[in-house]
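tool=predict chain=A
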Amino acid sequence: MKTSNKYSSKSKALSYGQETNFLLSSDLNRPPVHVDAEIKNGLDFSDAMLALREVVISDKRSVKKDHTKYQAWVFQEYLKELNQSQPDSIKEIEANRKNTIRELNNLGKKIKNNPLIVEDNNFYKAQRKFWDWLYNEDKELWYILDPVISVQPECIIFEAFSLDESSYGRVTLPKKMLSKSKKYTTGTTNIDFSRNLANEFSRVRSYRPLNLKIGQNNVIASTEISEHIEKKIDLPQSWVNGFLEVQTASTLNHLNFDLTPDFVSDIIAFLEQHKNNVSPKSLKIKLQNNKKPIFEIEPWGRKLEEHNYTYYGPDKEIRLWGRSRLSILKNILKKTDKVSVSAIDDGMPSFWSCKLNDVTFDLCLSGWTANDWSSQLKFALMTADPKRIIFNNECELLNEIRNLLNKKIKLSIVEIVKKVNCHEKDALACLQKLCSDGLVMYDFHTQEYRWRELFNCGDKLAKKVINKNLIKGLSIDSNLIKARTTILPKGQKKITWEYANKIFPRPSKAEIILDNKDNFIQTECDCFDFKKTFKKDGPCQHLIALMNKYIWERYEN
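tool=predict ok
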């Protein structure tokens, strides 16, 4: 989607004797958001913001080599050899080539003089002029989007995705870390986070007070003449999908354990010293109850045992890919006491959290680098009814919850259900819809839903990315699905459906296990798609059809 960000000035850092002022310009096109206070421990905040900057500029996608010049050289050498062996035919081919080029040039002139083409050229010239200006002003902003900042009643949240959209970074600054607060207005905006500002964060010292000012007219503090900087950029719908996927993945069942910073540093150092040219390129984690976690770095088979912390939970062995992205934590590890890790399963997302006293930095990694957060809806299909997300179904309950959150700013799911008097599943479906529209966020630290408008009121969302399995699953006639339900201990239930398979003569089986609130605990299917991708691309079409009949339709009715 197209969005316009307008700033009164560039974000900057100003030093006055014994203090440093960080002036972060907010978007003028949004409702006013203001913060003006001194941060008690500015060094922790600056370290967390530098780590967020590492997320923003991170791009671990493999770059294909450009063989254009080499192929051109090979072609010329081929012509030389061909010219020596068949001189007559080459002359004829060359003459035909020149005639063809002449005809193409004549056609090109006619197309170029077409009024519609002339008008388009003027547009592209203006667009190119803007990008050239942006490239010269700040090269990194030429391809980097501004982070999103949410000023909440009790904290300030900074969020951003990496360039490859496989890493999500978040910095949480509690309001209790602010002193001498002069102005504090809640809301959501983009901040101008330039390269020069990041350089200033690295110059923060513990003996020098750090003042944080977020606002639209902060230029008055440094100059008498106000200057507006307007940037029109393509803000991808993928960011909205990415936020939704991160929030949904954080609600799934996790295996939680802690690691010492030195242990994580050993893993990063080993990976930097060894080049992995062969597969597998994963971190194999062995978790046993009442024992320290053991990491095996493949393909070398190097095993490292955690130094201090013990794991408590079910025995499990999982493998994580895209391990090179952990280098984002390299500089922040020396400032934290422990790294809290939440992992779901093989090739599934993982959450790495570091606390710098009261400031929290979270790094959320997708299953692997190429499997980014935003390519399609995956985990959102495993919670509430995704049909509301895809098909833009408006209802009275949705509007009621929207107005409630807009007024209260933050609420837990229990509080929302109590205030609107509805079933929890219906409320979750509406909240997922609001998250997909960029209006609400789920805070996985406090387990609350917060009002957070990602876009300006005038900006329109692009068409949402739709999971192909969702369309196939919803197209299966629910009357043909005959499943059996088995009651399990602790209020859990297992729903099993045997369906005909075109490939194998025997019937195939799709199975889901739900808790007493109809949340997913386990899914399984015998089809090829599920066996190939497991849960990495979300549920397959058979699981979608089963969930649609026995969960979503039941709550709709």
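The first strand starts at residue 2 and ends at 7. Residues 87-112 form the longest helix (26 residues).
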